[in-house]
């Protein structure tokens, strides 16, 4: 056993709330040794982030350490005054935050932000800071440190920003690094590279690493020991092997099932056709009714040789256009799901926008049923919205915070003037029930709902018109894994019940595997591989697909 | 950058032309006779003399022709002559401008400093009571009209204690009370907006990272938060400049100072149209210039705005890629 660097005993943190204290962390005890990586796994609200921030003395004003001891190198940090904390932070315990998109100061150059960490911790003075900054940026794997040091965060990709944040964390050679969900905002392939980097840095320097994550797959792959946290308490501790093969707590079991890369069998579903697309209040008729467009043999969507070019602004002096989508073709059979996979920037969201007629393609055709919708405008284009709907990535941004759930769900009906007020209300109740939310949410506003509940509302809104096709653009990547699994199950159940077709867009092959019948892999605007889901998983031919497969945590 | 600047300058020229044309249309639609005003209150002017004067001033020609002639003159820096004194409008305004600029400029600088100070102090302080007290000041500052503040300052500091002169120029010492009077509203508005956006910024993730580096509260607030929070306040400051000119009129009346306010007041009362028009065009010029400066400052304060204009940056920021 390596010497104990951090020994947390009986840590209890409460939040002051209007209705009395809320217990965030309850009697948590654990230890991290020198050079050891310990992972805390749990869903949001389990107290794992509160634990992390307590170790840095960065709890919000409303939080208080009620009890317990944070033993670090023989001292007790609990109850340290703010002035003393400043000597610990950065120098001895460093933070790698969750979201590289918002964790760097947007108006300061990367180099200055790293140099600040060096200067504050006494790791360098005014003269040596610059050279040391470049060294550290190179250690963190940034390709061209001298360039990146002079850039602003908005000029770097998510992965490069996280490397910059890692540089800031290691600047002062801390003895413990607390990494709070360091990769959950990143693509899976980038996630793997970042975790590799962290692992290497920790091994070389003998730094202890406390890895906070909601993904048991990540924890099992990267940590020496795994702690499972639930409702503020640690319910399980052990090596990854022990926790995975012999979980003692039923909650751990459910986390194992929820991790997309760890579950053994993908979920399966069936197809049934109902109702008239685009109008929930029309009399249900057999599927060959003329309004339905076509029989079940005609695919719901065909995309042929789709091309989208973005022309750089004239002032740029560069004549060549950027091809975001480059000759993409695929077909979605009625009642089925097509998964479109790729890293950010691969053109998957642009493809979705072209299909939804939110952008005009440079070339190619989009057919909805038998109708060519590529050039539709005005009223005809508006009518398409009754047949195609979208579920967006971020349920925190896609719902109007000032409207009630009922108003949100019935909004599409109201904008097409469908049904009476009473009918719409009835339809809202039906949909909310369909997405497994209690009827009481109808009167509430988005702020009162959790992320998973909000995404259910967004799904209800997308389905209220009874569309033929729903485009799901990364619908679960802003959610915890446990919630992800629930939403995926819900989407599959809704498809079985309603016969709706999905275009499912994701950067994560593991997620797509659970929902898609067919998968297409996009790489730099081109569809490099396409086929039935299990075939892709059994034997990927293209190198990029294999890279995406290898990136799934827990598969190695 | 040159392209951006050229575009903004063209836009500014358009605003100036529009201000000139609109003021021409409105002022000359008024039922007053410039020739009669130019002849003065002297009732002995015969109708024949008045007609002759009208002809000399070009008032008998078609309106469009008058407009084009005057616009041509304005392009060469000739805004016509005052109907009352016969002095060229440009030299009249040129003479009245420096004292007004001194008061308005001092007021703006003081307002920005006070507002920023208030916001920073309210954010940095650990005392909840002090923060509440500071943040209750802005609504008060906006609610009290400038002339009331001016009169109160006069009453205490000039008449009762005799610290500052009550009337007239008196150099720098005479500038203090008018500048303070004019600064109160901008300070209140800037303080309010800046404190709010600093509060919003404090909750952002990069602040946690800065604190995790070991930075203290002053460093976090001044080095990290203030610059990020400055944009809304800067926009506001640009808009407030228009209000400062209006404020100057009131303040010059209260403190009996010479300046643009006095000139404007006199010109409006006497229906001296060329002077009024000159003041309108000057207001537009100041507004355009200040907002151009604000736009340029944005780019200095927030590199993302400068980056967005470059092609690579624009593509990355287009939002198509989402959060992934």
Topology:
The complex is a heterodimer of chains A (556) and B (324).
Chain A: E1 4-17, E2 20-33, E3 37-41, H1 48-55, E4 63-72, E5 75-76, H2 82-88, E6 93-96, H3 110-120, H4 129-139, H5 145-150, H6 158-170, E7 176-180, H7 188-205, E8 208-213, H8 216-222, E9 225-230, E10 233-238, H9 240-245, H10 250-258, E11 301-310, E12 322-332, E13 337-341, H11 348-355, E14 363-368, E15 371-372, H12 378-384, E16 388-391, H13 405-415, H14 421-434, H15 451-463, E17 469-473, H16 481-498, E18 501-506, H17 509-515, E19 518-523, E20 526-532, H18 533-538, H19 543-550
Parallel strand pairs in A: 3-8, 3-9, 6-7, 7-8, 13-18, 13-19, 16-17, 17-18
Antiparallel strand pairs in A: 1-2, 1-4, 4-5, 9-10, 11-12, 11-14, 14-15, 19-20
Chain B: H1 2-29, H2 34-39, H3 47-56, H4 63-75, H5 89-124, H6 128-135, H7 137-143, H8 146-160, H9 171-202, H10 205-212, H11 217-254, H12 260-269, H13 273-301, H14 303-308, H15 311-317
Summary keywords:
A: alpha/beta, Rossmann fold, 3 domains, six-stranded mixed β-sheet, 20 strands, 24% strand, globular, B: 324 residues, mainly alpha, 15 helices, flat, disordered C terminus
The radius of gyration over CA of chain B amounts to 25 Å
Structural class of chain A: alpha/beta
What is the share of helical residues of chain B?
Answer: over 70%
Work out the number of β strands of chain A. Answer: 20
The largest chain-to-chain contact, stated as pair and per-chain residue counts, equals: A-B, 60 and 37 residues
Please tell me about this protein's structure.
The complex is a heterodimer of chains A (556) and B (324). By secondary structure, chain A is α/β, with parallel strands linked by helices. In chain A, 34% of the residues lie in helices and 24% in strands. In chain A, strand 14 (363-368) and strand 15 form a beta hairpin. Chain B has 324 residues and is mainly α. Chain B is built from 15 helices and no strands. Chain B has helices at 2-29, 34-39, 47-56, 63-75, 89-124, 128-135, 137-143, 146-160, 171-202, 205-212, 217-254, 260-269, 273-301, 303-308, 311-317. Chains A and B meet through helix 2, helix 3, helix 6 and helix 11 of A and helix 10, helix 11, helix 14 and helix 15 of B. Chain A: One of its GO terms (molecular function) is ATP hydrolysis activity. Chain A: It comes from Actinomadura physcomitrii. Chain A: InterPro entries: AAA+_ATPase, ABC_transp_ATP-bind, ABC_transporter-like_ATP-bd, ABC_transporter-like_CS, Oligopep_ABC_C, P-loop_NTPase.
């Amino acid at each position: 056993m390596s010497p104990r660097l951090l020994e947390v005993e009986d840590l209890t943190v409460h939040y002051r709330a209007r209705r009395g204290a809320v217990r965030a962390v309850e009697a948590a005890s654990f230890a991290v040794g020198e050079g050891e990586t310990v992972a805390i796994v749990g869903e949001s609200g389990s107290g794992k982030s509160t634990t992390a921030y307590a170790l840095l003395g960065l709890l919000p004003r409303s939080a208080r350490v009620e009890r317990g001891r944070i033993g670090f190198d023989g001292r007790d940090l609990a109850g340290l005054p703010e002035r003393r904390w400043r000597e610990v932070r950065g120098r001895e315990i460093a933070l790698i935050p969750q979201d590289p998109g918002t964790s760097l100061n947007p108006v300061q150059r990367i180099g200055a932000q790293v140099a600040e960490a060096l200067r504050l911790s006494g790791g360098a003075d005014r003269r040596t800071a610059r050279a040391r900054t470049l060294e550290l940026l190179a250690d963190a794997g940034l390709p061209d440190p001298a360039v990146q040091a002079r850039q602003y965060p908005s000029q770097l990709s998510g992965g490069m920003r996280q490397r910059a944040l890692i540089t800031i964390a290691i600047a002062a050679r801390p003895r413990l690094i607390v990494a709070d969900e360091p990769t959950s905002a990143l693509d899976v392939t980038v996630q793997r590279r970042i975790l590799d980097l962290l692992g290497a840095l920790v091994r070389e320097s003998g730094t202890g690493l406390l890895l906070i994550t909601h993904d048991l797959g990540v924890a099992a792959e990267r940590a020496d020991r795994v702690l499972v946290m639930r409702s503020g308490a640690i319910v399980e501790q052990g090596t990854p092997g022990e926790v995975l093969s012999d979980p003692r707590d039923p909650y751990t079991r459910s986390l194992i099932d929820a991790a997309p890369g760890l579950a053994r069998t993908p979920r399966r579903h069936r197809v049934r056709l109902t109702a008239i697309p685009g109008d929930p209040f029309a009399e249900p008729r057999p599927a060959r009714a003329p309004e339905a467009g076509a029989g079940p043999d005609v695919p719901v969507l065909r995309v042929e040789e789709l091309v989208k070019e973005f022309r750089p602004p004239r002032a740029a002096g560069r004549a060549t256009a950027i091809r975001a989508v480059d000759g993409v073709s695929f077909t979605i059979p009625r009642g089925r799901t097509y998964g479109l996979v790729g890293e950010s920037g691969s053109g998957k969201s642009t493809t979705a926008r072209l299909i939804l007629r939110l952008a005009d393609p440079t070339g190619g055709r989009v057919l909805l049923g038998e109708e060519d919708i590529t050039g539709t405008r005005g009223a005809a284009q508006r009518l398409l919205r009754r047949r195609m709907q979208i579920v967006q990535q971020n349920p925190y941004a896609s719902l109007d915070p000032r409207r009630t759930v009922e108003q949100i769900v019935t909004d599409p009906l109201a904008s097409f003037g469908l049904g009476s007020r009473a009918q719409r209300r009835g339809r809202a109740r039906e949909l909310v029930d369909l997405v497994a939310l209690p009827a009481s949410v109808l009167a509430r506003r988005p702020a009162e709902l959790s992320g998973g509940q909000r995404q259910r509302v967004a799904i209800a809104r997308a389905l209220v018109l009874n569309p033929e096709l729903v485009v799901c653009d990364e619908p679960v990547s802003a959610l915890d894994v446990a919630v992800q699994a629930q939403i995926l199950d819900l989407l599959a159940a809704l498809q079985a019940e309603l016969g709706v077709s999905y275009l499912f867009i994701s950067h994560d092959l593991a997620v797509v595997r659970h929902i898609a019948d067919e998968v297409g892999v996009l790489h730099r605007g081109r569809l490099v591989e396409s086929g039935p889901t299990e075939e892709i998983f059994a034997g990927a031919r293209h190198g990029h697909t294999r890279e995406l497969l290898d990136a799934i945590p827990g598969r190695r | 950058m040159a392209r951006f600047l050229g575009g903004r300058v063209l836009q500014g020229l358009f605003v100036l032309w529009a201000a000139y044309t609109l003021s021409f249309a409105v002022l000359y639609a008024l039922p007053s006779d410039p020739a009669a005003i130019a002849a003065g209150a002297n009732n002995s002017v015969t109708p024949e003399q008045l007609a002759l004067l009208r002809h000399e001033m070009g008032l008998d020609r078609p309106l469009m022709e008058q407009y084009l002639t005057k616009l041509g003159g304005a392009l060469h820096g000739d805004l016509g002559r005052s109907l009352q004194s016969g002095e060229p409008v440009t030299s009249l305004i040129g003479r009245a401008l420096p004292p007004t600029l001194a008061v308005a400029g001092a007021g703006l600088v003081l307002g920005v400093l006070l507002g920023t100070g208030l916001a920073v102090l309210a954010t940095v302080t650990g005392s909840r009571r002090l923060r509440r007290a500071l943040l209750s000041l802005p609504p008060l500052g906006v609610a009290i009209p400038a002339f009331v503040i001016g009169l109160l300052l006069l009453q205490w500091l000039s008449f009762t204690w005799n610290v500052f002169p009550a009337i007239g120029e008196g150099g720098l010492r005479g500038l203090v009370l008018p500048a303070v009077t004019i600064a109160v509203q901008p300070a209140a508005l800037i303080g309010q907006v800046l404190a709010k956006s600093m509060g919003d910024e404090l909750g952002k993730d990069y602040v946690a990272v800065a604190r995790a580096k070991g930075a203290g509260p002053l460093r976090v607030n001044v080095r990290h938060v203030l610059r990020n929070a400055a944009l809304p306040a800067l926009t506001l400051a640009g808009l407030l400049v228009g209000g400062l000119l209006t404020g100057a009129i009131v303040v010059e009346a209260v403190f009996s100072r010479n300046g643009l306010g006095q000139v404007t007041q006199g010109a409006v009362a006497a229906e001296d149209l060329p002077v009024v028009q000159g003041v309108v065009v000057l207001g537009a010029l100041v507004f355009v210039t200040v907002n151009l400066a604000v736009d340029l400052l944005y780019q200095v304060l927030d590199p993302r705005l400068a980056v967005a204009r470059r092609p690579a940056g624009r593509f990355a920021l287009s939002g198509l890629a989402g959060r992934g």
